[in-house]
Amino acid sequence: MYDTVIENIGQLILPADGPIKGKAMNELEVKENMAIAIKGEEIAWIGTHEESKKLKTTTRVDALEKTVSPGLVDPHTHLVFGGSREGELALKQAGVPYLEILKQGGGILSTVKATREESEETLFLKARKNLEKIASYGVTTIEAKSGYGLERESELKQLHVVKRLNDEGALDIVSTFLGPHAIPPEYKGNADAFLDTMIRLLPEISEQQLADFTDIFCETGVFTIEQSRRFMKASQELGFQTKIHADEIDPLGGTELAVEMDSVSADHLVAASREGITGLAKGRTIPVLLPGTTFYLGKERYADARGMMDAGAAVALATDFNPGSCVTYNLQMIMSLAALKMRMTPEEIWNSVTVNAAHAIGKGDEAGRLKVGWKADIVLWDVPNYQYIAYHYAANHAQMVWKNGTKI
Ligand code: NIG
Ligand code: FE
C-alpha cells in the first residue's frame, strides 16, 4: 500500500549520477507516460503509467501533460538577515557601484547593523518566511550562510537560526559560516585582525556543529587571496569543507585558489581567468554560478558557463538570495537567466539545479535525483515539458511540492 502515486506523468525528469561534468551536462533522461509512488518519507517505486494502475495507494495525483522532477537544490543563499535595503536602489540607479556602497559603510554593512540589532526570535521568524517562499518555487534543499553578524554573538545567532530551521525539518538546510563576509566598522583598515577573530570562532562552531562549510568574500576591498587562503586552511584543519565568493567583480584569482584548496565549490566566477576555468575542470570544485546577481547588479558580463562546460567542469546554479545583490526567492527565474544570459541549454540547466547543485553542498548522495529508496523530494510542475520553465520566465510553475514524502 502506497501513500501517493503521481500518475500519467507527461515528462519525468531523471538526472543521472553526478557530478555531471562538461559535455555530459547536455544530456538528461526525460521519460514520458511515467508514474512515481511515495511511501512514508521515501520514493518507493518508479515505473510506467500502465504498470502503476495495479498499485494500491491512498492518493492518486494526475500529472497528465505535466512535468515531474526532483526537488530543486539551491546551493547558495544568504537566508538569515535583518532589515532590507530598498533605499539603495536609488544609489544603484545613480550608478554608484556595489563595492563603493560597501566602502561607504552601506551594502552588506547596513544589513550587518540591522542583523545585530534583531533578536534571534525575530530573525528566526523572518528566515522561516523566506524559507517557505523559496520552497514554494519547488526548492527542497538549500544552503544558508551567516555573514551579517561579523562578531561572535551575532554570527552564532544567525547559525543558531539555521540550525533551528533545519531541525524543524521543513527543508534540508546545509549551514555555512561566512564570518569573513565584510570588514566591520570596528576593524576598518585592519582586515587581518578581524580575520583572526573569525578564525578563533571556528573551534566553537565546530564543537557545536553549527556549520558544515565555511565561506569567505574574496574581493577588492574585502579579503585578499592570501587572507582567503589563511582562512580556508584554518577551516580545513578543523574539518570544515570550504567555499569561496570568488572573482565576482575583479579577477583576483579566487577560482584558482578554490581549486588549489580543493574547495567543494567556488561561487560567482564572473571574472574568473582562463587558468581558473581550466583548473575547475581538473579538480572536484564545483562552480556555482549566480546569474541573478549579475542581472540585479545591472552588469553586462555574465559568468562564462559555456567556457566552463567546454573545459569539462560541472556547473551548478543558485539564487544567491540576499537583501542586497540578488533579492529573489525564485530559482526558476535563475533558470531563465541561465538560458537567456548564459546560453545554457534546458538539459544543462536542469542538471545545474538538481544533481550538480546537490554536489556543490555535499548532498550528492541524497538530493537532486529521483531514486527508489531516496527521500521523496518531488515537484509537480504545471508545464507541458522540461524546456518550458526557462522559456516562460519569472512565473512560479510549481504546482505541488513534496518534501520527505509530505506535500508542502
Ligand atoms: O553573494 N558578494 C558578497 N556577498 C553577497 C551579497 C551580500 C549582500 O549584498 O548583502 C553575494 O552577492
Ligand atoms: Fe553570496
UniProtKB/TrEMBL annotation:
Fe(3+) binds at H76, H78, H245, D320. Its EC number is 3.5.2.7. It comes from the Bacteria. Binds 1 zinc or iron ion per subunit. It is found in: Cytoplasm. 4-imidazolone-5-propanoate binds at R85, Y148, H181, E248, S325. Its cofactor is Zn(2+); Fe(3+). It catalyses: 4-imidazolone-5-propanoate + H2O = N-formimidoyl-L-glutamate. Catalyzes the hydrolytic cleavage of the carbon-nitrogen bond in imidazolone-5-propanoate to yield N-formimidoyl-L-glutamate. It is the third step in the universal histidine degradation pathway. This is Imidazolonepropionase. NCBIfam families: hutI. Its main location: cytoplasm. One of its GO terms (biological process) is L-histidine catabolic process to glutamate and formate. The lineage of its organism: Bacteria, Bacillati, Bacillota, Bacilli, Bacillales. Pfam families: Amidohydro_1 (PF01979). Zn(2+) binds at H76, H78, H245, D320. Belongs to the metallo-dependent hydrolases superfamily. HutI family. Pathway: Amino-acid degradation; L-histidine degradation into L-glutamate; N-formimidoyl-L-glutamate from L-histidine: step 3/3. PANTHER family: IMIDAZOLONEPROPIONASE, IMIDAZOLONEPROPIONASE-RELATED. It comes from Halobacillus dabanensis. One of its GO terms (molecular function) is iron ion binding.
